[in-house]
UniProtKB/TrEMBL annotation:
Residues 34-98, 164-236, 292-363 form the PAS domain. Its EC number is 2.7.13.3. This is histidine kinase. InterPro entries: CheY-like_superfamily, GAF-like_dom_sf, HATPase_C_sf, HATPase_dom, His_kinase_dom, HisK_dim/P_dom, HisK_dim/P_sf, PAC. It comes from the Bacteria. Residues 719-942 form the Histidine kinase domain. It comes from Chlorobium limicola. NCBIfam families: sensory_box. It catalyses: ATP + protein L-histidine = ADP + protein N-phospho-L-histidine.
């Protein structure tokens, strides 16, 4: 069996290893504290520093100076310590004597001395210190500088290390440290059980060996770890190694081993003894610290510019790579000695140093613009630099960044040049000065500025600058140059190689050009008028800056060039315009301040209708009285005196011959040298026709808007009319059929009658919607308007009530109109109901008719009347009237002046729709508290004889025996009509489609007297269906029915004159009467 070493031998390396382990942990702690390179910069001395004068004749002096660590160590403030002497802090008399009395004498023999003493804190606690005392001369007086280090922890550590071997073994076990021994002579290994567990192995399952140790290491660390240990063992030196193990549970751990060599009597290393501890948490902390440090460094390096940190002396304590390489231009190790102010341009150093001082001393946040030398100069760039103070351990530092603003400053310089360079006050032409400036600003050798021909193929130069000299202007072609295709574009830039790209440009070849810039100059309307071209013999240094500068220059140059072109054009055309004075199509005049004309051209005389003979008379008159409205004259004069000019003042004028015209007056005051107004220069334009056109346009726009509104509502009404009418037809028909039963209860009869009444009202509502939308299906007839009104009088009197007097004034001549009589009823009802609602208590409604004739010479009253004969229907009330601001809206759908819930806004819109449908117009007049008057004009029919009225028959008793072919695609309507007709005695052949109807009509067994068909049918147009059936049965009579609007029905050709038609929904009475009439041939 291998003999184990003695306990003393085992513990000897353990003691040493443990001590090293503690120091390792302390070193690791220091590494964590000082890991961040920027934190190291701000750390101050951790030892307490106490400075005091040397005692004389038993007298002790208080401390002269202490640092923050001294305050932290003792618990006293700086002010308190400066009132104390060394004896106040030492625990016993021996220490006091050693430090205060004996030690100064010893300083004559030694420069410094190291001793240990027990010191007292402010709270009374005691701690062990190691004091390094040095004699120095401060201010001519001998002083002691005491550097005090708290060694309490170290003393405790030493005591722990002095414990017995058994206790040390317990500590090692508690710390989970493994101990090993390697006999190099026989290659025998001895491991403690804890070491097996650290390797992730069971002690009972493995024997300690070099191979087992090697296999426990993760493959990535195995070779390097083995190589380091082997090299150390060959040299016989102590080693420290770190590696990772990955036990069977998969958890990776870091281990650290320290091995100490032992020698035999011959002095040769024959064995190693060491310790292994788990340093996983320590390694993770180190990696986290490294990662955090890398992250912080990456942030600083990502700053778009410079980053710097200055200490209180203005030297670099931190920087990024840009600051180091581009600005300072020194290696890393020389940066701490570099003074930041030396990198600033000499002309900017005073201001910059003031900002640095304000930051460090006062804590101000400063921003300054300045020139920064590149690697010591003379090259520089402009930077916007910031500074903010931070304090570490009582020491101030300036942290700041710098942003390169060189391009911005150069652009500002261009803006300054353009602002102070005025073409109006020039010592040299603007474009010459600009060419010279651009050559210097952008480092170009050739600059030319010119005006393009109208076709853009050639350019006439205005300024040429070549190699520092002005050259004569010339005309040059654009073909084969880089500028040939940039017209209409803003800018063209070639950074380098332009000579090779355009070998046919002789100027580029002559200059051996490398770079090229061209920008187009535009007029205010966007057309190209000129160009600036720059050529350089070197590559372009900063294309982005060049583009920005040229964009600025192009804006100003475009304005200057356009002004120059305009001035030349004005000079060329001045003579021509002078000759055109008398031929301009406006009236030009000059008058004194009293309104008397001094001079005027012929057009002015023509506009004012003044002949040459009357010229002098008109000139002597005050033309201010020519305004039709004197307020216009006052307003014109007020504006003229206030602002010195008046543009396009429009007003009605009384011309010299007394006629009225709309004139536009533009005038300007002409002042004398003293600033007083001498006379007025002005012009007249006759805008009478334009005003008339504007009034006509306004009227037409109003009519168009109304028409569009009616069309919109018509689409809405027409969209629901068909389906709604079909549903009403089913409801109305079935209710009426039910009423024919003789055994009905009275209550049931009343309920059915209510259904009939509701259906009729709904039908009327649909008709009203269609009426004001002009979609109503009508059956116009030539009727006497007086007769229609008289038939309505009794109903109207009941409608408006007994308190309102109804007066009827019929016209003398026969007022014949072609209109559906029901529409006259609708007009009268709506107007009389509105009149009734407008009258409070007692009043009068007057209905009047007359025949009138309008001609072309009648005054325009704002309506859309046309020349011709008309029949007038007038309704006048004595109600409260309508406010003027509502007049333009009263015929709009859903507009009402009544209270909420008392008006639908459909009444007058319905009247308007009916009148327009019948090609008439309405004149409306109303004043508040005086009533309203509606005059409706309908075209008068030339036929003075009304058509004979239908014979009155009792529709309820009408019966028949004829056969009727009924065609309807709606099953409910088909069923209802069949029931009604069969109840009246007719034989009914029902068909749901046109095809089925043709089949029934083709059968010879059936004798068919009447075709009753819906207008809108699937499969076939109803007109084609009727033609087909008439070809089979020529004597067939036809009656059409539909619930669609008039325009939909008209599209199917069934509203022509003489065509029999009945509108859905219809009553049993209406259908019976219509069928009997058609069969009878009426």
């Amino acid at each position: 069996m291998t003999k184990l070493p003695s306990l003393h031998e085992q513990l000897q390396p353990v003691n040493k290893t443990a001590t090293n382990n503690v120091r390792l942990q302390q070193d690791e702690h220091a590494h964590q504290e000082n890991g961040n390179q920027y934190k190291i910069i701000f750390d101050t001395i951790r030892d307490g520093i106490f400075v005091h004068k040397i005692s004389e004749n038993g007298q002790t002096y208080p401390f002269e100076l202490v640092n923050p660590a001294a305050c932290s160590m003792t618990g006293y403030t700086e002010a308190e310590l400066l009132q104390m002497n060394p004896g106040d802090l030492l625990e016993n008399e021996d220490s006091k004597t050693l430090c205060i009395e004996e030690y100064p004498d010893d300083l004559h023999k030694h420069n410094s001395r190291l001793l240990e003493a027990v010191m007292l804190r402010k709270n009374g606690s005691r701690f062990f210190t190691e004091i390094s005392v040095t004699k120095v001369i401060l201010g001519g007086a001998p002083c002691l500088v005491c550097s005090v280090q708290d060694i309490t922890l170290r003393k405790a550590t030493n005591r722990n290390l002095a414990e017995s071997n058994s206790r040390l073994q317990l500590i090692m076990d508690a710390a989970h440290a493994g101990i090993w021994e390697w006999n190099m002579q026989n290659n025998v290994n001895i491991w403690t059980d804890e070491l097996f567990r650290l390797y992730g192995l069971e002690p009972d399952c493995y024997e300690a060996s070099y191979d087992v140790w090697r296999q426990s290491i993760v493959p990535e660390d195995r070779d390097e770890t083995e190589r380091n240990i082997v090299e150390a063992s060959k040299k016989g030196v102590e080693f420290t190694a770190e590696w990772r193990v990955r036990p069977t549970d998969g958890t990776e751990r870091w281990l650290m081993s320290k091995g100490t060599p032992f020698r035999n009597t011959e002095g040769k290393v024959n064995r190693y003894v060491g310790i292994v501890i788990d340093v996983t948490q320590l390694k993770l902390a180190q990696m986290a610290e490294i990662k955090e440090q890398s992250f912080r460094k990456a942030i600083i390096e990502s700053i778009p510019g410079t980053f710097y940190m200055l200490d209180a002396k203005g030297r670099y304590a931190g920087w990024n790579a840009y600051q180091r390489d581009e600005i300072i231009g020194k290696p890393e190790h020389e940066m701490p000695e570099a003074a930041a102010i030396e990198s600033i341009h000499p002309e900017d150093r005073t201001l910059t140093q003031e900002k640095i001082t304000n930051v460090l001393k006062n804590g101000s946040v400063e921003i300054v613009e300045g020139r920064v030398l590149l690697r010591g100069g003379p090259a520089f760039r402009w930077f916007l630099m910031t500074g903010q103070r931070i304090v570490f351990d009582g020491n101030p530092f300036l942290v700041g960044t710098g942003i390169d603003i060189t391009d911005r400053k150069r652009i500002e310089a261009v803006q300054t040049f353009l602002a102070r360079t005025s073409s109006a006050a020039k010592t040299e032409p603007f474009f010459t000065a600009l060419a010279e400036y651009l050559a210097a600003c952008l480092g170009m050798d050739f600059v030319c500025i010119g005006q393009l021909d109208s076709d853009g193929l050639r350019m006439k130069t205005l300024a040429i600058w070549l190699d520092g000299h002005v050259k004569d202007n010339l005309s040059c072609a654009m073909k084969d140059t880089p500028s040939e295709n940039i017209q209409g574009k803003e800018i063209c830039i070639h950074n380098a190689g332009v000579c090779d790209l355009f070998p046919r440009d002789p100027q580029l070849q002559e200059l051996q050009a490398e770079s090229y810039i061209a920008t187009t100059l535009f007029a205010h309307n966007g057309s190209p008028i000129g160009m600036i071209r720059l050529i350089g013999r070197r590559p372009l240094e900063n294309p982005h800056l060049a583009r920005s500068i040229m964009n600025l220059v192009a804006m100003r140059s475009s304005g200057e060039l356009e002004r120059l072109i305009t001035e030349n054009s004005l000079l060329q055309s001045e003579k021509k315009y002078r000759n055109l004075f008398e031929s301009v199509p406006i009236g030009l005049y000059q008058s004194d301040m009293e309104g008397n004309i001094i001079t005027a051209n012929q057009n002015c005389l023509d506009i004012t209708r003044c002949s040459k003979e009357d010229r002098e008379v008109w000139f002597s008159q005050d033309t201010r009285a020519s305004y039709v409205d004197s307020k216009d004259s006052e307003r014109f004069r007020s504006l003229l005196l206030k602002q010195g000019y008046v543009n396009g003042f429009e007003a009605r004028f009384r011309r010299y011959d007394g006629t009225i015209a709309w004139l536009s007056n533009t005038a300007k005051l002409i002042y004398n040298e003293k600033g007083g107004a001498d006379f007025i220069n002005g012009s007249f334009i006759d805008i009478t026709e334009r005003k008339q056109a504007e009034e006509e346009k306004t009227k037409l726009e109003t009519q168009l808007q109304q028409s569009q509104k009616m069309e919109l509502v018509g689409r809405l009404a027409g969209g629901i009319a068909h389906d709604f009418n079909n549903m009403l037809g089913v409801i109305l028909g079935n209710a009426e059929l039910a009423l024919t039963c003789e055994t009905l209860d009275k209550t049931v009869i009343n309920n059915l009658q209510e259904i009939v009444n509701a259906a009729n009202r709904s039908s009327n509502l649909t008709g009203q919607l269609l009426a004001f939308a002009r979609k109503q299906t009508v059956n116009p007839k030539i009727v006497d308007l007086n007769m229609l009104v008289e038939e309505m009088l009794n109903m109207l009197r009941r409608l408006i009530g007994e308190d309102i007097n109804l007066i009827w004034i019929p016209g003398n001549s026969q007022p014949m109109v072609n209109i559906d009589p029901s529409q006259i009823d609708q007009i009268l009802v709506n107007l009389c109901v509105n009149a009734r609602d407008a009258i409070t208590d007692i009043g009068t409604v007057t209905i009047e008719t007359a025949t009138v004739c309008f001609t072309d010479t009648d005054d325009d009253d704002g309506t859309d009347k046309r020349p011709g004969d008309y029949v007038m229907l007038s309704v006048t009330d004595t109600g409260h009237g309508i406010e003027k601001q509502h007049h333009s809206h009263i015929f709009e759908p859903f507009f009402t002046t009544k209270e909420t819930g008392k008006g639908t806004g459909l009444g007058l819109a319905t009247v308007y729709g009916i009148v327009k449908q019948n090609e008439g117009f309405i004149v409306f007049e109303s004043e508040p508290q005086k009533g309203s008057n509606f005059r409706i004009y309908l075209p008068r029919d030339k036929n003075r004889t009304p058509l004979p009225a239908d014979e009155k028959t009792d529709a309820l008793n009408i019966t028949g025996k004829e056969t009727i072919l009924l065609v309807e695609d709606e099953p409910e309507i088909l069923k209802l009509c069949r029931m009604i007709l069969e109840k009246k005695g007719y034989s009914v052949l029902a068909a749901a489609t046109p095809g089925e109807a043709i089949r029934i009509a083709s059968e010879p067994d059936h004798k068919i007297h009447l075709l009753l068909t819906d207008v809108i049918m699937p499969e076939m147009n109803v007109r084609d269906l009727s033609d087909k059936l008439l070809s089979i049965r020529p004597d067939l009579k036809i009656l059409f029915m539909s619930g669609y609007t008039a325009d939909n029905i008209a599209n199917h050709g069934v509203l022509d004159t003489g065509v029999n038609f009945i509108q859905k929904p219809f009553t049993i009475k209406a259908l019976s009467k219509k069928v009997a009439a058609v069969l009878a041939g009426s």
